[in-house]
Amino acid sequence: MKPLIGLTSSFNWENNQYTLPDSYVKAVENNGGTAIILPQTMEIDTQQLLKLVDGIILTGGVDIDPYLYGEPPIPQQGRIDPVRDHFEIKITKEAIEADKPVLAICRGCQVLNVAAGGTLYQDINAQIKGSLKHSGQAPSYYASHPVKLAEKSKLAEIFNATSTRVNSFHHQGVKKIGTDLEATAWADDETVEAIEHKTKKYIIGVQWHPERMLESEQNKIFKKFIEKIIELKK
To answer: Catalytic site residue 170?
Structure first.
């Protein structure tokens, strides 16, 4: 039986619809998993969802409410979704506690860090002097800048290298790293581009969007995620 992967979703307040780009579903299905989309609500039983799925992918989306990491919003703070914040941070904390495999992408990487007690730069260009342009204006599959990978990290193992080129569609990023997480990838301006859990079996967050680069080596991130889940289920 294929592993069941829960994908978090966005909510469109204008037409009351849950939404998710199909590239996430394709990334799971193309690499041997079955995708199930998780709707965020304030009342949903996250423990039941965790028991149902074999792993979770925290997907991209809007900014996280800075009050959740103890800061007031700055002018560059973007749109937030309080219900999604509540749901994703709750289920992420529970996934960490249960040692459930997690792949966190873009916003998801930031959710992972905040759930572990970390903080964020609300706007990289406003708060980091000399930063690169991280909110790219290029086709979503285009690798706009390189990242350095920590030796012996999960990402270095995935790519069998200490660097890779990634796309970039974010204006926020990891600041103080959460408890038991460590930075494992950096852009040339030293902005953190990936985090990994130090002790759990497979919890990893990347700041870029590998699901939009499935024809490139970035597909290896999903391949390894599914393979690791299958290995852990044996």
So the answer is: no
